[in-house]
Amino acid sequence: MGKLKDNLVVKLLLAVIIGIVIGLIVTEPIMRVIVTIKYILGQVIFYCIPLVIIGFIAPSIVKMRSNASKMLGITVVIAYLSSVGAATLSAVTGYGIIPKLSIATSAEGLRKLPEIVFKLDIPPIMSVMTALITAILIGLATAWTNSDLVEKLLDQFQNIMLAIVSRVIIPILPYFIAATFSGLAYEGSITKQLPVFIIVIILVLIGHFIWLTLLYSIGGAISNKNPLEVVKHYGPAYLTAVGTMSSAATLPIALKCAHKSKVLKEDIVDFSIPLCSTIHLCGSVLTEVFFVMTVSKIMYGSLPPVGKMIQFIILLGIFAIGAPGVPGGTVMASLGLITGVLGFNDSAVALVLTIFALQDSFGTACNITGDGAIALMLTGIVEKRKVTRS
Fold first, then answer.
1. DSSP string over 320-351
2. pLDDT, tens digit, for every residue of 110-135?
């Protein structure tokens, strides 16, 4: 029972339910207080975004450069291309399907939210793009100059930001979500949109299996081996990921599953599966892209422009590599892209966070299962090109 109470999905589900109930019954004065609380919590979350970007992207770049090898470079490239490919598939599908869904814009016949009681502005110390460029330059320069002290400082800063995410952002997230859904229920839009969320989640799950099929087909083509000899062992890892929502918690099971395959090289499994569990997030990015497009249609009445989506996808692949290892880590790391590139407001961000977190376990399961396909690709590359890790 204690574990259930601590589960983020359970907390968010309760937040959504409680928020909707409150929004349907409260009076305008109480809603003013709720809107104010939502505003303040949003300010805290958005203040942390540039710090999260620097805290996770810069150390990731340093570690990859300082541990540079052929196998590492190949694995990172494959993981990035897989994430970007999954996101692109999601975007193309979104442009084709989302306009055909029965989505009513949130501006039609809705009650107006009351003004907030007071404003507590907490502006970020820098913009999202400034934070990204800063993280990339600091990471690269630290690797180029072999600055051990700065590398240790970046590792410590990453631990600090992980603590802030785990102990500040994640705990206040249910309250932010509850306040957001209270506002949506008060306006009257939530009853129109819940069926759409269910449809979208089903579509995303279908997308996961399509992408996994493509990944394993490519792995089979590169290695000239039957991909079913890998994927058939991944059932326990998939179910574990669904149950834990954690790549780290699933890693021992994933290694055990991959080692059962007769077509994977043992040393490739020991190298690639742990690495990919932290940098290969194809299921998560596929999910996020489809969700942000859906939320854009719900909140603004239109899908994001193609140019902005291309920029979002390219950067999202980078952010995914440095995403924190917490439930919803991908979307937390990319909040800056959602606000900076796509221009989402706090209500739109809350919707993305909610529907992402409610199916995050399936995204994690897709990520973990896809790692086996990358191991299959690497096995083929090693056998054909005699590539080594040194």
1. HHT--SSTTHHHHHTHHHHHHTS---HHHHHH
2. 567 777 877 788 888 887 668 878 88
